[in-house]
Amino acid sequence: MHQLAYHTRLMSIIFVVVLTCFFSCRKKTVKERVDAVTDRAAIPVLAADSVTTLISDSGVVQYRIKTKRWEIYDKATPPYWEFPEGIYLDKFNEQMDVQASLQADYAHYNSLDQIWELRGNVVAVNLEGERFETPQLFWNQKTERVFSDSVIHITRETSIITGVGFESNQNMSKYTILHPTGVFPIDEE
Prior knowledge:
Elements: H1 2-25, E1 46-57, E2 60-73, E3 80-83, E4 87-92, E5 98-104, E6 106-110, E7 115-126, E8 131-140, E9 145-155, E10 159-169, E11 175-185
């Protein structure tokens, strides 16, 4: 009997030690409440860094886009793409020749209306090598028109044209300056 009492006492001690270890080692879980996203339009469905992509229409490559940051807001009204760290874009013809190139410090593309807004050090170069510089430029892909109400400088081979307001085809080969302020010949030397 004495041995049975000893084993019972020993088993009780082991049981208490195991229970103590079990409850003292158990990690206490703290539940946090996270609010649901209330404005889905303010969160991009896609955010990508260091992107180079080709955009095609009916299997024909139309554009090449290079950017450090690309965000797509598909739930916004209207849906849009944003390039907060700038963009470089090439427009190709069917032979894959670059017809025009654009670059800007910031770009916004309204995907519903197909209108691009380019801001900050906007530089465009057409097939003839003419360089267009302006702080803001719009490009309507549906109408294939490029336009601006800002100051524009066009550097051509033999002159620089300056003005306010600008309209062009999307290749920037046929353009009109709405309010020209000067044509300055360039000295070849």
